[in-house]
Design brief:
The complex is a heterotrimer.
Chain A (H helix, E strand, L loop, with lengths): L12 H27 L18 H8 L1 H36 L6 H14 L1 H11 L6 H8 L11 H29 L3 H9 L4 H12 L1 H17 L2 H6 L9 H10 L2 E2 L2 E2 L4 H34 L1
Antiparallel strand pairs in A: 1-2
Helix pairs in contact in A: 1-13, 2-3, 2-13, 3-7, 3-10, 4-7, 7-10, 10-13, 12-13
Chain B lengths: L2 H20 L21 E8 L2 H17 L3 E8 L4 H10 L5 E5 L16 H7 L17 H8 E2 L2 E2 L2 E2 L2 E3 L2 E5 H6 L8 H13 L13 H6 L1 H7 L3 H10 L7 H17 L12 H6 L5 E4 L4 H7 L5 E5 L12 E5 L1 E5 L6 H12 L1 H11 L13 H6 L6 E3 L31 H19 L2
Parallel strand pairs in B: 1-2, 1-3, 11-13
Antiparallel strand pairs in B: 3-12, 4-5, 6-12, 7-11, 8-9, 8-10
Helix pairs in contact in B: 2-15, 11-17
Chain C lengths: L18 H28 L3 H6 L11 H9 L2 H32 L5 H11 L6 H10 L6 H6 L5 H11 L4 H9 L4 H12 L1 H16 L3 H6 L8 H12 L3 H31 L6
Helix pairs in contact in C: 1-14, 3-14, 4-5, 4-8, 4-11, 4-13, 5-8, 8-11, 11-14, 13-14
Classes of the chains: A mainly alpha, B alpha/beta, C mainly alpha.
Chain lengths: 308, 447, 284
């Protein structure tokens, strides 16, 4: 592209202004990530002054192939995918649905919109604590509701699959607000005339949605999908607050942190294994990369096809 | 948003960052050189790290106050972190040289010669990295029990930590009033325990409670069962590694069956909703008959309900009363000093002061540890309760066990695998699963 | 309907029985209950005494024990935690967004060489997991451990934001650049005064996303901020929970002490957030 804002030395202005951002990025994100890649080939413990040895692919071998533990790791990987898929699609669907309803601007919609966005503002710890309280098995609200149906559950302390399902639910609950907001913004960009024209042609609400709303919402759809997919693949703080490091509920992000920084259970703490954790990080990265790029590619193609 | 808005924003950012910068604490001043006498002359901030344990923290605050009064040039800056975070924060603060005295649990889980390809435990990693100060030869060591120093604080012949006490985790607290009211004898065998629980349940009293929300209180509470079948836990660990003992052989199967009864029938419904710290309160409220838990809960029980009548017995896992006279536990909290601390004299002084038998006695009274100083007395209620079994104190399985790499997550003797805390309800199936998970690791490392 | 919301179609004619409207309200109320329910439980619990809570967790709190709040207030420095969170988020987000705009703009316009490659660099970073230990070593070596500035430093990058900004800037026609340059506008002034207002929706999205990330950070404070006075609310609450985890009334009071000011902050800010997000309603 030709640069319009002057010639000669002023041509350097974009570069100079770009430099801080780029520098920060190399220093804080790219550099450490490359370092992680190097760490993954060592037996580094992360403790200052401890000896570090190059061990090649041993960490990867151990993570992926060694005995029963690697099967547990692959389970964690699977669980990460399940978490991501469930959260992405359900959050996407619900966010869209609620955005459509709120977008009608019925009286009071603003209040509802604020309510749905509230958990986003409160943050992960408060979300977790609110739900820990709500799901209190010894007579909390959810327990009461279930008892009216004659059921009981241990909720977050019960069988791992149940606890896992609850975390998925709470994650969706917490973040639906953002999805909704992004869709609302996108809905605002659709000109009313298109709806009028389609309505005059006799389109019913479902057709309106399929032929006007959905195609023109593509940029928001793409943003939300990409954010959701990547975010949910890496998110695990809710697990920390709600469940702790329980077998059968771990997702990769948590596993990486626990192996790297030692995990305490009762009276025992595991050793610090930063090299191993780094290898797990890289595996997670590759997973996210593959999925993310596939999603991104598919979305790009669709966007150009629909919007030209 | 106009240009003015952004200029204002930039100004605010600058202000915020300045505020943040000015808020940083003063760096600790270095103590006078190594040749100085025991009492440093300059102002020193001594940074101490402990984990969350309400009676211990309360004691430490008192102790720090007195210490600061006695040594007016030293200010003690104590940080308290959740027990789960202790090792993480210890590691980061040691690496950053941001700590002087730290709370460290008794050294355990060392790599034994029959274990292959195991990583050294985290305390060993810290020592090998040169982060813990060698305390060998320090004066205050003489106050402590020699075996405690050896077993819980030494490595390669040097002392790196003074351990402050032992705790038992394989006992059961019982509610004396409920027992007398329901005519139940204090159980000394497994069958008596089962019968006792059934009596209580028939009277609509939950038999046992524990802090199920934190996970580990359930299976740690059942370590008495493990101990009654395998009283020598060091031998158990070696047997598991060499294959002489399996988690699905006859003896183990007996243990699994009993663990199922414990998890399914004895534990109250809803135990999984009780946080570890809430369990003593629940027991002290008089709502349940028994509470399998560690001796460290005694202080919390007394605080929750002073005057509450309770007792503590070893978990009767066997039908032979003689097998049930052991208490299994671990070495709990200890003190270590950062090797690179700039406040060496102050730190050593702190430890010396703490180790003084009068101060130590007060500490033990406050937290209910089984003392590691031979001169200390068992003044607390829990002390008197465990006194008859003290000669039979054994270090527990958890302190010996190191899992082989490649072992699955089920390779443990955990009662919490059973429903309602886990997903299993068939002891044989579970036993096989546990052994399979362990075997996977053994096979992987023995290749 | 007002002119600002030119396209907010009511999908259902409010003719005879407005089923559509009723249905919509039912849905919105259902979700609202789902969101307010836990909050209400929190409020109710915070007003109870511990024995009352243990006896019946869901009974209405008739004892109105406001001492819980006093207790929570005294036991931990919540105002400081809140202030810390705000400072960290605000400082890091502002530094980030300003540097990010000046990275995204020339990439989107191709004003720098290899802009395609640079963009790819950022896209790759989208998928990178956090590099906790190397970052720790970095901050340590910079001497910024246990220092708010070091903590803020961790959050002045975010590749997703760059990607979003680039995509949005590309929708602004190049002719604008040419016209401005012909008018004698310099590069910096152009970006600052003309481009930024035009990409407000993207900036709003990126700011919200980034701020939420910092606001929610739980692990970094554990590792980097050991001084109680530096704790953000996430760390402060978790430490508080470590002590009072079993004491739900006090814990609930503590959570509320933080929730209320945040809600007020949000209500104040949401006008800007929403107007920022929806400002691009009518584009060229």
């Amino acid at each position: 592209m030709s640069y319009h804002f002057g010639r000669g030395r002023s041509k350097w202005t974009p570069y100079i202004l770009l430099l801080p951002g780029l520098l920060f990025y190399f220093l804080i994100a790219l550099g450490p990530s490359i370092a992680t890649a190097f760490y993954s080939f060592t037996d580094a413990t992360g403790i200052k002054g401890a000896p570090v040895h190059w061990i090649g692919f041993d960490n990867y071998r151990e993570f992926l192939f060694m005995g029963r533990a690697s099967i547990d790791n692959l389970e964690a990987l699977k669980r990460t995918l399940v978490f991501s898929v469930a959260v992405t699609f359900i959050q996407f669907g619900l966010g869209l649905f609620v955005a459509l309803i709120v977008n009608q601007n019925l009286k009071g919609s603003n209040i509802f919109r604020t309510i749905y966005f509230m958990p986003v503002i409160l943050g992960v710890v408060i979300q977790g604590l609110m739900w820990s309280l709500f799901l209190y098995p010894l007579g909390g609200p959810a327990a009461k509701l279930l008892s009216w149906l004659g059921l009981r559950s241990e909720f977050l302390g019960g069988p791992p699959e149940q606890a896992f399902a609850w975390v998925i639910f709470i994650q969706i609950w917490a973040n639906m607000g953002i999805t909704m907001m992004i869709f609302l913004a996108g809905l605002q960009t659709i000109p009313a005339e298109l709806y009028e024209a389609a309505r005059i042609d006799g389109a019913n609400p479902l057709q309106l949605f399929a032929n006007v709303t959905w195609p023109l919402l593509t940029p928001s759809v793409n943003t939300n999908l990409l954010l959701n997919v990547i975010g949910s693949l890496q998110a695990w703080q809710l697990f920390l607050v709600l469940v702790g490091y329980r077998n059968g509920t771990q997702v990769l992000g948590y596993l990486i942190y626990a192996t790297g920084f030692g995990q305490t259970s009762g009276s025992v703490t595991s050793s610090f294994r930063q090299g191993y954790a780094a290898a797990a990080s890289i595996i997670l990265f590759l997973l996210v990369l593959v999925i993310g790029m596939t999603v991104q590619y598919y979305l790009q193609r669709r966007e150009t096809r629909i919007l030209g | 948003m106009s240009k003015k808005m952004f200029s204002l924003l930039s100004l605010l950012v600058l202000l915020a960052t300045l505020l943040a910068a000015c808020g940083s604490p003063a760096a600790p001043t270095a103590s006078s050189g190594d040749t100085a006498p025991a009492q440093p002359a300059e102002k020193v901030t001594l940074r101490v790290l402990v984990h969350q344990n309400p009676p211990m923290v309360a004691f430490m605050e008192e102790f720090n106050k007195k210490f600061q009064e006695k040594h007016s040039n030293i200010v003690v800056d104590m940080s308290v972190v959740n027990a789960n975070d202790l090792s993480t924060v210890s590691q980061t603060r040691l690496s950053a040289n941001d700590i002087d005295v730290l709370d460290i649990f008794g050294f355990s889980n060392a790599a034994q010669p029959y274990m292959k390809q195991v990583d050294p435990p985290n305390w060993q990693q810290l020592i090998e990295a040169g982060l813990l100060m060698d305390l060998t030869g320090q004066d205050f060591l003489k106050y402590y029990d020699e075996s405690a120093l050896q077993d819980a604080g030494s490595y390669n012949g040097k002392v790196y930590a003074v351990n402050l006490g032992r705790v038992s985790y394989s006992g059961i607290y019982y509610n004396k009033d409920l027992f007398t009211a329901n005519n139940v004898k204090v159980p000394t065998t497994w069958s008596e325990l089962v019968a006792a629980c059934e009596t209580f349940k028939a009277a609509n009293i939950p038999c046992m409670t524990a802090g199920g929300k934190d996970g580990w209180p359930i299976f740690v509470g059942a370590y008495g069962l493990l101990g009654s079948i395998y009283p020598d836990q060091a031998a158990l660990v070696e047997g598991l590694w060499t294959g002489k003992i399996k988690w699905n052989d006859e003896k183990s199967l007996e243990m699994w069956k009993k663990m199922q009864v414990y998890a399914r029938d004895m534990m109250e419904e809803g135990a999984s909703g009780i946080a570890g710290d809430a369990a003593p309160g629940r027991f002290a409220s008089g709502a349940v008959a028994m509470f399998p838990g560690g001796t460290w809960y005694a202080a919390a029980i007394e605080a929750a309900n002073p005057g509450f009548e309770w007792g503590y017995i070893p978990f009767p896992g066997s039908d032979n009363a003689d097998d049930n006279k052991y208490l299994f536990g671990k070495y709990d909290q200890g003190w270590a000093i950062a090797a690179n601390t700039p406040n060496k004299e102050a730190a050593l002084l702190y430890l010396a002061e703490f180790s003084d038998p009068a101060n130590y006695q007060a500490f033990v009274d406050a937290v209910g540890f089984i003392p590691t100083q031979p001169t200390a007395k068992l003044n607390t209620k829990i002390g008197t309760e465990v006194a008859p079994y003290l000669a039979n104190f054994r270090v527990g399985y958890e302190q010996y066990w190191v899992a082989p790499k490649g072992a699955g997550q089920f390779a443990n003797p955990w009662a919490s695998y059973f429903k309602p805390f886990g997903t299993d309800d068939d002891p044989q199936v579970l036993a096989d699963k546990v052994q399979a998970d362990l075997q996977a690791g053994l096979d992987a490392v023995n290749k | 309907m007002n002119a600002k919301n030119a396209s907010s179609p009511v999908y259902y004619r409010a003719a005879r029985i407005p089923w559509g409207v009723i249905g919509s309200y039912l849905v919105m109320i259902f979700f609202a209950l789902l969101y307010i329910g836990p909050l209400f439980m929190l409020v109710n619990t915070s007003l109870k005494t511990m024995p009352s809570f243990m006896k019946d967790a869901t009974s209405l709190a008739t004892e109105l024990r406001f001492e819980n709040f006093v207790e929570a207030w005294n036991k931990a420095n919540f105002p400081k935690y809140l202030l810390n969170s705000v400072i960290y988020t605000f400082a890091a987000t502002t530094i980030y967004i300003i540097t990010a705009i000046f990275v995204a703009f020339p990439i989107a316009r191709g004003y720098i060489k290899y802009s395609g490659a640079v963009l790819t660099l950022f896209v790759i970073a989208l998928f990178l997991p956090p590099a906790l230990i190397p970052q720790f070593q970095l901050i340590l070596n910079l001497g910024l451990y246990n220092n708010p500035i070091g903590y803020i430093l961790l959050f002045i990058v975010n590749p997703i934001g760059i990607v979003i900004l680039v995509n949005y800037i590309k929708t602004i026609p190049q002719e604008l650049d040419e016209a401005a340059a012909l008018d004698g506008c310099g590069y910096f002034r152009f970006v600052w005064s003309i481009v930024i207002p035009l990409i407000r929706p993207a900036i709003a999205t990126v700011i919200v996303m980034h701020a939420i990330g910092i606001w929610n950070e739980v692990i970094a404070p554990t590792i980097y901020l050991t001084n109680k006075d530096y704790y953000p609310i996430t760390r402060g609450l978790i430490v508080f929970q470590g002590v009072y985890g079993s004491n739900w009334p006090t814990l609930a009071a503590a959570v509320l002490l933080l929730t209320l000011p945040m809600l007020i902050l949000f209500l104040f800010l949401q006008r800007y957030i929403v107007s920022g997000l929806t400002a691009g309603a009518v584009k060229g």
